[in-house]
């Protein structure tokens, strides 16, 4: 189950304020920052985006 589209329209990266895109499926879902210089990846746990910079990871 993906996040509602209206939610994705308003969510932004807390680090650089760029829009986020949803990636992955099931337990592996995450939100990726579209900013060119940032690119952090935020986890989605139990359907809830965890938008904490300390919880984010750099893309591999």
SSE blueprint:
Elements: H1 5-10, E1 20-23, E2 30-33, E3 41-45, E4 48-49
Antiparallel strand pairs: 1-2, 2-3, 3-4
Write a concise keyword list for the protein shown above:
60 residues, alpha+beta, 1 helix, Trm112-like
CA gyration radius, whole angstroms: 10 Å
Number of helices: 1
Number of strands: 4
User: Which spans of ≥5 residues are poorly predicted at pLDDT below 50?
Assistant: none
User: Portion of residues in helices?
Assistant: 10-25%
Number of domains: 1
Give the helices and strands as they follow along the chain.
Answer: HEEEE
Using the alpha-carbon principal axes, give the shape: globular
Percent strand equals: 25-35%
Main β sheet profile: 4 strands, antiparallel
Strand order of the largest sheet: 1-2-3-4
User: What's the end-to-end separation, in Å?
Assistant: 24 Å
Output the structural class. Answer: alpha+beta
| Mean pLDDT across all amino acids | 90
Protein name: UPF0434 protein ABWK59_13625
InterPro entries: Trm112-like
Family: Belongs to the UPF0434 family.
């Amino acid at each position: 189950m993906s996040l509602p589209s209206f939610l994705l329209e308003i969510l932004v990266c807390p680090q650089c304020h760029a829009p986020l895109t949803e990636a992955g499926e099931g337990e592996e879902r995450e939100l990726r920052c579209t900013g060119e210089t940032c690119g952090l990846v935020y986890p989605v746990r139990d359907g809830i985006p965890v938008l904490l910079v300390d919880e984010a990871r750099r893309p591999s």
